[in-house]
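User: Small ask, check this?
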Amino acid sequence: MQITCPKCKQVQEVDNRTATCPSCRTLIRRCKDCGKYDLRISFCHAFNRAIDTGEANYPTFSSDSTYCREFVPAVAAA
């Protein structure tokens, strides 16, 4: 799948094991960028639970989104 890096804005081809952007080493999967995350109510439909807004915007290596197998880019890579 292709994901646009939130920091360097480069389109990266990633698989389920890729956690960081190869160019800038930023965590590439954020709940905020996932099509299964509802920004209005801070709710993940893949995990069926609320996700803290801070974690959704700035995940860590221990965040659920870092290696989420259900991740679907909300916006197609440009």
In short: The mean pLDDT is 88. Residues 53-57 form the longest helix (5 residues). The two ends are 13 Å apart (CA to CA). The chain has one domain: 2-67.
